[in-house]
Amino acid sequence: MKLEIEVDEEIIRETVRDVFRAAFSAPRYDSKDQGSPGYEAIRRQVQKYTAEMDLSGYVQEAAQKAAEAVVRDVVAEELRKLAKAEVKRQRDNGELFNRLPKGKP
Which of 17, 31, 61, 80 shows a CA-CA span of 20 to 30 A to 55? Predict the structure, then answer.
């Protein structure tokens, strides 16, 4: 008896990918459970590495950028309010299109 089997390489790849995912699966986001043994082994190594890191400079950089963004957003919002009020004032006083330079629509 002769048996011949053909296996599509994509099936092999998918199966290996599934096994790998299961071996290194992360815990669910809303779960207090641990991840798979492979995931937890990597987590322990990463925790050892990151425990000695000084992130203070990165935190300060992020805080500075965030503060600049907030200031920019607040200034833009206040300018929008001011411009809107000025447009309304000029419209209400009939001045809205009176200040255009001569010869321009």
Answer: 31
